[in-house]
Amino acid sequence: MELSRKIAQIRKQKGLTQEQLADRANLTVRTIQRIESGASAPRAFTLKTLATALEVNFDELIDPAPADNQIQTDPDKDIDFLKTLCLSCFSYLIIPFIHFLIPLALLHKTGNLNREITAFARKIIRQQIFWKVITCLTLLLTLAYNLLSAYYIGKGYQVHYLWPFFIMYFLNGFLILQRWRQINGMRPDLQRLA
């Protein structure tokens, strides 16, 4: 329930008019009207004053965060968010070592996502972290191969470092595009859940 409706409901249950509540809370009637209509969001001090005037606990007055499975979101906004998150993964082309921090920041900045959207977003971020680790390991293995072949064989065949580098970069681009296609396929499922 919205805070404005909750305050109005508690006031009516206590049998108070807006004027009486305003007198008890030492606020103006206009302030009470604006809060109950949802035109203004009260500050914490005002909420504490209202809780005292209504004789309820401050924690009961403020709305608790809904459970993950009760969060109502717009499927189109969820799809747009996932697409933005997916596109932000292409930052590996510019910032190859810490690019996964950009989609991670987007996820933390966006609140109130349902469980399915959050899980999919985390899966995208984990994929980028795994890609980074595998890319580094591939380059280290290339170095080890080149050192061993130079030491034991002499002028044996050396693998150029750009080959595994470009292969891994193209692979990541392909993986990001695969996730993009998965996101487009999620739209009917999200609309069914809404």
From TrEMBL:
PROSITE patterns: HTH_CROC1
GO molecular function: DNA binding; DNA-binding transcription factor activity
Transmembrane intervals: 90-108, 129-153, 159-177
UniProtKB keywords: DNA-binding, Membrane, Transmembrane, Transmembrane helix
A Gene Ontology cellular-component term: cytosol
Domain HTH cro/C1-type: 7-61
InterPro entries according to UniProt: Cro/C1-type_HTH, Lambda_DNA-bd_dom_sf, TransReg_Diox_bact_type
Protein name (database record): Putative Xre family transcriptional regulator
Organism: Flavihumibacter petaseus NBRC 106054
